[in-house]
Design goal:
- This protein is an all-alpha fold and about 550 residues long.
- The protein contains 16 helices and 4 strands.
- It has helices at about 5-30, 40-65, 85-120, 125-155, 200-205, 225-260, 265-300, 310-345, 355-380, 390-400, 405-435, 450-470, 480-490, 495-500, 505-520, 530-544, and strands at about 160-165, 165, 210, 215-220.
- It has a two-stranded antiparallel sheet with strand order 1-4. It has a two-stranded antiparallel ribbon with strand order 2-3.
- The chain starts with a helix and ends with a helix.
């Protein structure tokens, strides 16, 4: 029978995630999307609930203890009774549906109007045309990833689990057990009816033959488990990079938000800051005009057609144009940030909440502690062949002794922190290296395209976070259902298992964390005004 308390926890957690997701969508959405983009909003809303549920399902699995052998029926005192295998299977299927179907089609639908606006056909456009545009692109996505999923399962669905053969003595050669019911009115078997191990048990164990050579059992994993492994493997490349960058950048940026908090300006400081911001605005206006002229000239030269991907010069020019546009957007974003800080130091100074920087400092210190604990845990427990110390596993078990739920809550906090770091790391990496467009989450200034991008990133990183947490807390979470999936079936899966057995991603994560710490130590803040000047001069040089 399922534990009533765990059922109550599930209901409360779902309600909280739903409310928080709704609040984030309402408070962060751009005014332009206030009465529009209802389908993308629903996808973002329930995508947030799904990502939170994926991570919080791990601590629920820990509390449920259904992986304990006694839960089969002879010792159920510590078992929650929930069918965690069903819960995880639902998660395994929902994440690919969201990542490869709902989020892409919502993005195509949301941006279809922008594309029509660029070609001058958005006036009077019917909703059906936007839907057709979205379905056309989504069909291509489904075909490509459908083939990848089908072919990968067809050829890589085998797991080779190592086993050690133990041969016991014949039944007649040992002393038989006798079980005496404690209560004659209720003769059902209970583990408490067994006597403590004695000489007879030692004789049986000593008579066992243990084969020193490991054998293997080859099994075919079911599609849900395989696709969970495939999604985890794909997501690991993002999580190892962005999660590592975020673990170093998040504490630093929170602490710097307190160090660089708004302060009242005197007349001289006000005048200097105002002139500096005005100059940067003028520079970016010039850059925008140069970009516009450059695009118009290229369109006239090519007759409205591109140079084609087979043309090396055309590819190089397209890459340079993309990089220039990303740098322009970065400079605009940084200018908006500095303008907001300037307003908080001047016009909005009296209304500025002084608790915001203090809260940033406190959260920054907490984030720093959690990041340090993660780094130490990776070094001491996860990477060595024989762990130096259980570290966080010991901490969780110790707290469970005097407050049973504190260890479970700690697992939830440490796991969810990794998801936050992944989003932060993606934004930080994009701001520094300009490989892709950044999608910052700003209060009342976030378009649905940015929402969809960030939710897609979080969902891609959710399963790697769960897998990483299960491996990190293997001692504490040994009786979980997901532990049997991650550390048994997926760990020895054909092709993918090699990465996990050799801890490739864990090493990459640790190295990137350390490199990011060194890099941010020399360049803690994003470059400000110099970017717009360099961009303007480069554009002018290209035009001759």
């Amino acid at each position: 029978m399922a534990d009533v308390f765990l059922i109550l926890v599930i209901v409360v957690a779902f309600v909280i995630l739903t409310i928080v997701g709704f609040y984030l969508v309402v408070k962060y959405q751009h005014p332009d999307d206030k009465n529009d983009a209802y389908i993308p909003k629903l996808v973002v809303w329930f995508g947030f609930v799904l990502s939170g549920a994926t991570v919080f399902l791990l601590p629920l699995d820990v509390a449920n203890n259904e992986g304990y052998a006694g839960c089969a029926g002879f010792d159920t005192a510590f078992c929650g009774g929930l069918d965690m295998d069903l819960f995880w299977t639902i998660i395994y299927w929902l994440i690919p549906v969201w990542v490869f179907f709902l989020i892409p089609i919502s993005t195509f639908y949301y941006e279809a109007d922008d594309g029509m606006l660029m070609v001058g056909t958005s006036v009077g456009v019917k909703p059906n045309s936007r839907i057709k545009e979205a379905v056309k692109y989504e069909t291509f996505v489904v075909i490509i990833f459908g083939l990848i999923f089908a072919l990968s399962y067809l050829f890589l669905n085998t797991t080779s689990i190592p086993v050690r053969e133990v041969i016991g003595p014949d039944y007649d050669a040992v002393t038989p057990y006798s079980i005496t019911p404690i209560n004659t009115t209720n003769a059902t078997f209970s583990a408490s009816q067994l006597e403590p191990m004695g000489v007879e048990d030692v004789e049986v164990l000593s008579a066992n033959f243990v084969n020193k050579t490991l054998g293997t059992i080859k099994l075919t994993v079911n599609p849900s488990v395989f696709y969970a492994g495939l999604m985890a493997w794909m997501g690991w490349f993002l999580f190892a990079l962005f999660g590592a960058v975020g673990m170093a950048a998040l504490p630093l940026d929170l602490i710097l938000a307190f160090v660089n908090r708004p302060r009242h300006m005197d007349a001289v400081e006000f005048a200097e800051a105002q002139v500096m911001l005005r100059d940067r605005v003028n520079e970016l206006v010039n850059v925008g005009e140069l970009l516009k002229l450059e695009r118009e000239e290229k369109a006239q030269q090519n007759g409205g057609k591109g140079g084609g991907w087979l043309n090396r010069e055309a590819r190089r020019a397209a890459a340079e144009e993309k990089k220039t546009l990303l740098q322009f957007k970065q400079a605009v974003y940084l200018l908006e940030e500095d303008t907001e800080d300037f307003a908080n130091c001047t016009a909005n100074y009296k209304n500025y909440n002084p608790l915001i920087p203090i809260g940033s400092l406190l959260f920054g210190i907490c984030a720093l502690i959690v990041s340090l604990f993660w780094v130490l845990h990776i070094i001491l427990y996860m990477l060595p062949k024989e762990p130096v110390t259980p570290f966080l596993n010991t901490y969780f078990r110790w707290f469970d002794k005097w407050f049973p739920l504190f260890g479970v809550l700690s697992v939830a906090i440490f796991s969810f922190y990794l998801l936050i770091c992944a989003v932060k790391g993606c934004f930080k990496f994009g701001m520094r290296f300009l490989f892709f467009q950044v999608h910052p989450m700003k209060l009342n200034k976030t378009y649905m395209s940015s929402f969809l991008f960030n939710i897609g990133l979080v969902l891609l990183c959710a399963l790697p976070v769960v897998q990483f947490s299960v491996s990190a807390f293997q001692d504490y979470a040994r009786n979980t259902t997901i532990n049997q999936v991650v550390n048994v079936q997926l760990n020895y899966l054909r092709f993918f298992g090699w990465f996990w057995r050799n801890k490739v991603f864990e090493y990459a994560l640790l190295v990137i964390i350390l490199l990011t710490c060194v890099y941010l130590g020399f360049r803690p803040r994003d470059s400000r005004g110099s970017n717009s000047l360099q961009l303007r001069d480069r554009l002018r040089a290209r035009r001759g």
